């Protein structure tokens, strides 16, 4: 089963980093966040990736073109016809298809453009800027259990600020640091999709999270997989630093 990763956006909300490289190549613990996402899928046996490129897509192409070299011990022998000797191979068993899906193409359009690489198979899909401890086997099992066209992982994120309950005399009766939100479930970005989903996408200017998902919902073909574990998007530099701290602490919840 293929895992599709959307990696073509501008990443304007984290422009401190994204002006130099595409957002999925921003590093968490000296590895691109894209690598962390792929390692999660690989842990569950999903090693066939289709990555949708756009903004600064060549940076991602160059990374994977040299990935085997980056992860191996080598000797360059310039005395013997510029020979390169590989001593230890450490690269993952990945097959990575990199598809230029356009600079201005929106999320639905990027999906539509890779339809030929999916064929008639069920596939996974996520975004190139979020990390989670989601159990992908359980997600897939849930999808297969209901037989609908699409499954989206949904979660209840913590609030941005702590919440306090005050008495009439203004005594703080209860305090909770960053409680869950207002009981609403949001898109956590890990999908399982049937190929019929491409029929819901009109073209490059289609936002997948708008008309396609709304129509799937209206027709009863969209199911939500409830997930209450770790989930954190990397929208801002603050998010990036938070994820970096988790990784360096040795307790990154998404690390399998």
What separation lies between the terminal Cα atoms?
20 Å
CATH superfamily: Spore Coat Polysaccharide Biosynthesis Protein SpsA, Chain A
Number of strands: 15
The appropriate CATH architecture is: Alpha-Beta Complex
Please state the CA-atom Rg, rounded to the nearest Å: 21 Å
Query: Can you tell me the overall shape?
Result: globular
List segments where confidence is low: pLDDT < 50 over at least 5 consecutive residues.
none
The major beta sheet can be summarized as: 7 strands, mixed
User: Helix- and strand-based class?
Assistant: alpha/beta
Tally of separate domains: 1
User: What is the average per-residue confidence, as pLDDT, rounded to a whole number?
Assistant: 92
Please estimate the helix content: 25-40%
Beta-strand percent range:
25-35%
Number of helices: 9
Q: What is the CATH domain class? A: Alpha Beta
Order of helices and strands: EHEEHEHHEEEHHEEHEEEEHEEH
Write out key terms for the chains shown.
alpha/beta, 9 helices, Spore Coat Polysaccharide Biosynthesis Protein SpsA, Chain A, 256 residues, single chain, seven-stranded mixed sheet
């Amino acid at each position: 089963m293929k895992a599709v990763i959307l990696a073509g956006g501008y990443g304007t909300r984290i422009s401190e980093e994204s002006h130099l490289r595409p957002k999925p190549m921003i590093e968490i613990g000296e590895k691109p966040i894209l690598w962390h996402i792929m390692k999660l899928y690989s842990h569950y046996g999903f090693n066939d990736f289709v990555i949708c490129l756009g903004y600064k897509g060549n940076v991602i192409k160059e990374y994977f073109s040299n990935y085997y070299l980056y992860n191996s011990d080598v000797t360059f022998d310039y005395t013997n016809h510029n020979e390169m000797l590989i001593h230890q191979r450490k690269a993952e068993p990945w097959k990575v298809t990199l598809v230029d899906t356009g600079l201005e193409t929106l999320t639905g359009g990027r999906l539509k453009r890779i339809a030929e690489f999916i064929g008639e198979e069920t596939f996974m899909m996520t975004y190139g800027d979020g990390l989670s401890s989601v159990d992908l086997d359980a997600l897939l099992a849930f999808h297969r259990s209901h037989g609908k066209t699409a499954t989206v992982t949904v979660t209840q994120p913590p609030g941005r600020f702590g919440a306090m309950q005050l008495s009439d005399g203004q005594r703080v009766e209860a305090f909770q640091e960053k409680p869950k939100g207002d009981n609403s479930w949001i898109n956590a970005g890990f999908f399982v999709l049937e190929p019929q989903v491409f029929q819901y996408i009109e073209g490059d200017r289609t936002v997948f999270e708008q008309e396609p998902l709304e129509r799937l919902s209206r027709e009863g073909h969209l199911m939500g997989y409830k997930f209450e574990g770790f989930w954190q998007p990397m929208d801002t530099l603050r998010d990036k630093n938070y994820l970096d701290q988790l990784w360096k602490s040795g307790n990154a919840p998404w690390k399998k």
